[in-house]
Amino acid sequence: MWSRFLWAFGLTALTGLAGCLLLILLVDPLGVSPIGVISKPGYAVSDRRFVAPQIIASGDFDSFLVGTSTIHHVDPATANSALGGRFATVAIHGGTPYELTKMMQLIGRNAPHAKRIIIGVDARRWCKTEPYAQYNPKVLFPDWLYDESRVNDFQGLLNLKMVGYSVRQFKIAAGWRAPLIPATGYSNSLVDSRWSLSTARKNLYKKHKKDAAAHGLDDADEAADTEGKHDHPDLVSLDRALTALPAQADVILVVMPSHFTALLNKDRSDIERCKREIAALVDKRHGTMIDFRIDSAWTRNDENFFDENHFRVGLAEALIKRVKQAMDQKQDAEDGVYRLLAGGKSLSRNADAGLSTSPRR
Amino acid sequence: MLFQSQGFILIFLPATLAAFYALANRPTGREYALILASLIFYGWWDPRFIPLLVGQTIFTWMIAEAFLRKPSPFWIWIGVAANLAVLGFFKYALFVAGAAVSFVGLPEPGWNIVLPIGISFYTFELVSYLVDLKRGTGGHYGLRKFCLFIFLFPHLIAGPIIRHNEIIPQFDESPFRPGLAQRFGWGIAFFVVGCAKKVLIADPLARIIDPIFNIHRIPALTDAWLGALGFTFQLFLDFSAYSEMAIGLGLMLGLRFPDNFNVPYRATDIREFWRRWHMTLSRWLRDYLYIPLGGSRNGTAVYIKATLITMGLCGLWHGAGFTFIAWGLMHGVALIVCHVWQRNGRELSAPVGWAVTMVFVIVGWVVFRADDFASAGQMLAGMIGSGGIAGDTRWPLVLAAAALVSLVGPSTKDFVEENLQPRPIYGAGLAATAVLVILLVGMGQPQNFIYFQF
Fold first, then answer.
1. Cα(A327)–Cα(A343) distance, rounded to whole angstroms?
2. Which residues in chain A are contacts of B204 at CB distance < 8 A?
3. CB contact under 8 A, A12 and B435
4. Measured between CB atoms, does B70 come within 8 Å of chain A?
5. Which of A9, A157, A163 sits opposite B430 (nearest CB)?
6. Are B435 and A158 an interchain contact pair (Cβ–Cβ within 8 Å)?
7. Is the peptide bond before B160 cis (omega within 30 degrees of 0)?
8. What is the enclosing helix (H) or strand (E) of B362?
9. Shortest CA gap B81–chain A (Å)
10. H-type helices in B180-321, by residue range?
């Protein structure tokens, strides 16, 4: 009797585990299996940190949008029509400098023929005077998918989540459900229909009251900003990451626009210094650097933003067109919407144009 | 390597069982195979401590050899003192130094001592063997068997605390002796049930209650009770799960370990609780501390002294901290009160006795779990409503499952040995549970067992 019990246990356990493993390897929701057989019109995993390596390795794209949630609203299709090429977005929400460095190194290794890489620079992350936290504590960063070893890609593959992803990926391939992330990596989480000016203003004027903000800087803040450290340790990683990108690729760093209330923060002149340091790195790489994080008609317009750091889709489309304009004209925007900090002539390159003391019209 | 990790279940255990049963007809070979597997298992945590484990074991065996050649208590005292000194250094040196410097008003010492995992458990096993030798009940064992007794991986890290004379004789029994399939089936059942208790109930509970114990203010009544009840069930399910996995592994190797838990939260008085909770530690303390200190048959004063010292040291064994000592002394006082109460012929009805015992045990676990007396005080204040009534945390369904398993369901021993039928459907059901557990533990780092820190 007990031997039949043991046989039943052994066969069920073996069948269950082997079945799960086979399903995971054949469907391959993380793109690591050598025997994956399912095509991917989109992805079953909602975590971009797990999807980005697959997008990069897919070979379907020759250009990439890299960065955090601030660049994520740029639709690759807009970039395709404005700049040419086949763009995908590998932006990760809340990405840390470490994670973004890993992403760029992965592009360097797995997409060596990339033509164009647009890097959205979130100044809040790269320009800290202390090293930024290595990982975002809210989400797991799968280091093993970003290193050079293929062997460790299989670690942690046998688990319930992966079984769920595999089933979902299978349904996506069969056309039974829509992907959580499309093949280009683009999906807009800040849907424009949910935007309202009153909510946006609530978000925008939390720290700085509207009236005070409209009048710009005061002397006390300026004084406070000149004290303290001005090192930007994460720029060492950025330098390493830029060096790792494919040599022939056009590298365009875009300092993403923030609402002008963000420019009122005490770290503003330090961030200006940081931008100049980044520009020097980009120059070394013969890239282009365009700064939209300045006091301008765009950043003064509440209607362009959800909150201080996240702009609306309409602005994202305009931004890509302006990137194209900057690359063509190789100089600052005539209407003051951006400055060219590297890769051309800048009228205000050495000036602190972060914020004027009176509102621009 | 944790028992419930994929590495252990899918690689280490099958490989060890394969090697063991391949050598099952060669007693020496199978013993060496288990020693090697146990050292790999132990070294997986931190290979630096293998020399300490091996050194302490061989030293104790040499002391025993010296005693058996020339039976002088001197050898036993040397052996016991050396073992306790090692335990004292690794576990209590920082605590004593910290307490001393804070007493004289100096800053805390900046050094740190890493506690070798399992040292509290295996040191007690070594000490009990030496004391048994002095009492004339210790056997004469070869080095290989003695090492295997201590190193044996299922009980090495967190017990059950096994005595030499209940395990070493089993090493000579053939694993192929009659009843192999039943032993193996029971072993699998113990192991799978333990895994399920740990992964499906204890770990999810920990994720809910840990933040409550870490808020550093008085929690609301509902949060405080959720934290206190949650930890009460978590501790039992976590530790009993480990013991059951150990017992299961032992059975797979043809070895029977002593039971460690017998539905302790059904006890109707505190003395019964200690007869059901961490039974192998309780009997160790009884036989090697409480009775030598005078026990209960030498007058009230001796009884009180023996109980308080035993329980104070029981608390200290759990951790180098004043909260642990306070927890132990609390239980010592409760045991004395219970003893006096019962000696005077007073009886509480079972439901009242159970309720009083549970409230006391829960309050005790709050002191046990809290980082310091201030945190414990805040939790206890929250439990009487000083922090308001309604808290932020919803009471999870897993708490009900924990209560059901801890209070109502059969003990794992009863489930396996009495309820489990040797029918294929039961085997398939256990296998499905095992697969679920394996898939769940693959989702992240497996959680350590609470008792590993002791």
1. 8
2. none
3. yes
4. no
5. A9
6. no
7. yes
8. helix B350-369
9. 45
10. 180-196, 203-213, 221-252, 270-276, 279-285, 300-318
Closest chain B residue to A155 measured between Cα atoms? B442
Write the pLDDT tens digit of every residue in B256-310: 999 999 999 999 999 999 999 999 999 999 999 999 999 888 888 999 999 999 9
Per-residue 3-state assignment (H helix, E strand, C coil) for chain A = CHHHHHHHHHHHHHHHHHHHHHHHHHHCCCCCCCCCCCCCCEECCCCHHHHHHHHHHCCCCCEEEECCHHHHCCCHHHHHHHHCCCEEECCCCCCCHHHHHHHHHHHHHHCCCCCEEEEEECHHHHCCCCCCCCCCCCCCCCHHHHCCCCHHHHCCCCCHHHHHHHHHHHHHHHCCCCCCEECCCCCCCCCHHHCCHHHHHHHHCCCCCHHHHHCCCCHHHHHHHHCCCCCCCHHHHHHHHHHHCCCCCEEEEEECCCCCCHHHCCCHHHHHHHHHHHHHHHHHCCCEEEECCCCCHHHHCHHHEEECCEECHHHHHHHHHHHHHHHHHCECCCCCCCEEEECCECCCCCCCCCCCCCCCC
Residue at B430: amino acid letter:
L
Q: Is B431 on the interface with A (CB under 8 A)?
A: yes
pLDDT, tens digit, for every residue of A19-33? Answer: 999 999 999 998 888
Least confident range of A1-10, A19-28, A305-314, B300-309: A305-314
Assess whether pLDDT exceeds 70 at residue B33.
Answer: yes
Nearest CA in chain B to A163: B439
Across the interface, do B427 and A7 touch by the CB < 8 Å criterion?
yes
Query: What's the sign of the alpha-carbon dihedral A6, A7, A8, A10?
Result: positive
Q: How far is CA B101 from CA B94, B107, B323, in A?
A: 10, 7, 18
**Smallest Cα distance from B421 to chain A, Å:** 9
Sequence-distant (≥ 6) Cβ neighbours of residue B417 within 8 angstroms = B186
User: Does the beta carbon of B439 lie under 8 angstroms from any beta carbon of chain A?
Assistant: yes
Q: Which residues of A touch B435 (CB under 8 A)?
A: 12-13, 16-17, 20
Q: Three-state SS across B69-111? A: HCCCHHHHHHHHHHHHHHHHHHHHHHHHHHHHHHHCCCCCCCC
User: Would you say how long chain B is, in residues?
Assistant: 454
Is this model's pTM higher than 0.90 or not? Answer: no
B155 is catalytic: no
pLDDT at B293: 92
How many interchain CB pairs under 8 A, A with B?
77
The interface predicted TM-score of the complex, written ipTM, equals 0.87
The pair of three-digit structure tokens given for residue B187, joined into one six-digit string: 């072993």
Q: In terms of CA atoms, which chain B residue is nearest residue A157?
A: B442
B205, B234 contact by CB (below 8 A): yes
CB contact under 8 A, A159 and B188: no
CA–CA min distance A146, chain B (Å) = 18
B384: contact with A, CB 8 A cutoff: no
| A8–B182 C-beta distance less than 8 A | no
Pick the catalytic residue from B155, B164, B278, B318.
B318
